[in-house]
Amino acid sequence: MYAVRRIGIVGAGWIAADHAVVLAKREDVEVVAVCDMERTRAEQLAPPGASVYETWEDLLDSEPVDALWVCLPPLHHRGPTVEALGRGVHVYLEKPIARSAEDADAIVAAADQSEAVCAVGYQWHATEVLDDLRSTLDGQSVSLVVGRSIGPTGTRPWFLDRAQGGGNVLERGSHQIDLARVIAGDVVHVQAAASAVLLAQATGERGDIEDAATLVLRHASGALSTIVLAWTSAGQPSTYEVDVAASEATLRLTLDPEFSLAGVSKGEQVEARSREHPFERSIARFLEAARADDPTRVFCTPSDAARTLAVANACEQALATGDTVAV
């Protein structure tokens, strides 16, 4: 087992703050450094005694960290992740793996060549009842997966810029793409359409992204997945769930905040509820993998996340062209 205690965080936005809260609850790690180009944000996030930096290069050069949390916009994932892995520093990389396939390939190559562990933060992948769903479907054929992510979210300047963040499809929809791939296997081609009616962007700042879209994924197995996305205005209710129709089962996976499974399989009622939040479970598994020097133990590896990115990129192309796009 390897000692993994000293943690550095790159990026001090709202998702980094969520990670910092979880890490602060753990007695086996301490955040020793925080970096953000806006120093005041880093200072606000850094716990007492932690160092503050304005560049990730200075953090890595100055702090002997055991693991690095990369919580930057997707367009900027490659630099700190590749460098940290090259130095043998474990990396927890917030999803998506990157904005482009080229950057994703570089991260996958760096992870393959490194002795360090890298996890990509698709936290729904760590949902306990997802394990129950997969075991329930063992030996059955999945026909249809229907995912819904409808609700408000915190906006960020880069989220509104498709070139930087990929909009709803990459930033929010890729969570559902990840789950669809877990449940029904790899995707071979996609279709997509966006609504012309604005929801969250109807008031306030606007970008060049869609507020609502539907993605259709054809899996290599022959299964079909439909993903419905809607970024609604603040105060509206949220729906995050996945329905699965299989040869002998109809199941519903209810996600944030309930994380439960219900339905019928082979004539029997199925009911299960997660005991641990997937966000915390994902972090715990990453630390276990790093201490065991086992990169395969994480819930989502870079190579797996790169395949999800390929599907999301194909969906973006389908939105732009109206074509059926091969993955």
Q: Explain this structure to me?
A:
The protein has 327 residues and is of the alpha/beta class. It folds into two domains: 6-123 and 280-299, Rossmann fold; 127-275 and 309-326, Dihydrodipicolinate Reductase, domain 2, CATH 3.30.360.10. Helices cover 35% and strands 27% of the residues. It is built from ten helices and 15 strands. The protein has helices at residues 14-25, 39-45, 56-62, 78-86, 101-113, 128-136, 162-165, 167-184, 278-292, 302-321; strands spanning 6-10, 30-35, 51-53, 67-70, 90-94, 118-121, 142-151, 187-194, 212-219, 224-231, 239-246, 249-254, 260-265, 268-273, 325-326. A nine-stranded mixed β-sheet has the order 14-13-12-11-7-10-9-8-15. Strands 3-2-1-4-5-6 form a six-stranded parallel β-sheet, sandwiched between helices. Strand 11 (239-246) and strand 12 (249-254) form a beta hairpin. Helix 8 (167-184) crosses helix 10 (302-321). The radius of gyration is 20 Å and the shape is globular. The model has no long low-confidence stretch (mean pLDDT 96).
Summary?
The chain has 327 residues and is an alpha/beta fold. It has helices spanning 14-25, 39-45, 56-62, 78-86, 101-113, 128-136, 162-165, 167-184, 278-292, 302-321, and strands spanning 6-10, 30-35, 51-53, 67-70, 90-94, 118-121, 142-151, 187-194, 212-219, 224-231, 239-246, 249-254, 260-265, 268-273, 325-326. It has 2 domains: 6-123 and 280-299, Rossmann fold (3-Layer(aba) Sandwich); 127-275 and 309-326, 2-Layer Sandwich (Dihydrodipicolinate Reductase, domain 2).
How is the secondary structure organized here?
Layout: E1 6-10, H1 14-25, E2 30-35, H2 39-45, E3 51-53, H3 56-62, E4 67-70, H4 78-86, E5 90-94, H5 101-113, E6 118-121, H6 128-136, E7 142-151, H7 162-165, H8 167-184, E8 187-194, E9 212-219, E10 224-231, E11 239-246, E12 249-254, E13 260-265, E14 268-273, H9 278-292, H10 302-321, E15 325-326
Parallel strand pairs: 1-2, 1-4, 2-3, 4-5, 5-6, 7-10
Antiparallel strand pairs: 7-11, 8-9, 8-15, 9-10, 11-12, 12-13, 13-14
Helix pairs in contact: 4-5, 5-10, 8-10
